[in-house]
Design brief:
Structural class: mainly alpha
Order of helices and strands: HHH
Number of strands: 0
Number of domains: 1
Largest sheet: none
């Protein structure tokens, strides 16, 4: 829920007590598919595309 709410992965990692961010991403990356679209939109806006 934190990831879906837009909380940075590093903060979620710390809150969950994972020693490495790759653990958090490995377990929870599947709940973040919309992040790819958001990233593409942000990039497009940044380069005025």
């Amino acid at each position: 829920m934190l990831l879906q709410a837009g909380i940075p992965v590093k903060e979620v990692c710390d809150r969950l007590g994972h020693k490495d961010i790759s653990i958090t991403l490995g377990i929870y990356a599947h709940v973040m598919p919309e992040e790819k679209e958001k990233t593409a939109e942000k990039f497009a806006n940044f380069v005025n595309f």
